[in-house]
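Changelog note: in this version the structure field was regenerated for every chain. One regenerated record is shown below for reference.
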Amino acid sequence: MADISYDSNKAHYLTATAIIIKDGKYLITKRSPKEKAFPGLWTVPGGKLEVSDYISLPKDTSEHWYNIVEKILSREIMEETNLKVKNYRYLTSLSFIRPDKIPALILSFYADYDSGELKLCEDLTEYEWVSLEEAGKYELIEGIYEEIEMLDKILKGKHQSEWKASRKYN
């Protein structure tokens, strides 16, 4: 096991991503080469939870806000791609230690395209709507291909309950 050091006093980043489905294809986007984590690699839209995503909203109970992940995704997808999506469904989760030594927890979802004309933010340089087979031709962040593969199986009625590597990663 690799020796990983990080500041254990800091909270995890909570991030959510979504594979967007439109006309049987999946949206992938290319990260800017200036990004701190995974520069220049292809991924799916998503982003970090910010306190502003809920703090100014009325609570759903006396102490809690509900559907926060869906709100993160709606905001991030709009900011990154100018698209609206619907029907969020959970796919899987993962964690990693960022280059700045802060641990991150990522919740992966999938959703259906609802409306909007695709327009990328400055942190993304390209996009493609791809099939599973086409996705394999792109330099994706490790694990994204398998997430698309999981989703493809789910949509074809072949449920895969957990993420499994189908490629060799170091």
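Spot check on this record: Helices lie at 68-81, 132-135, 144-155. The mean pLDDT is 90.
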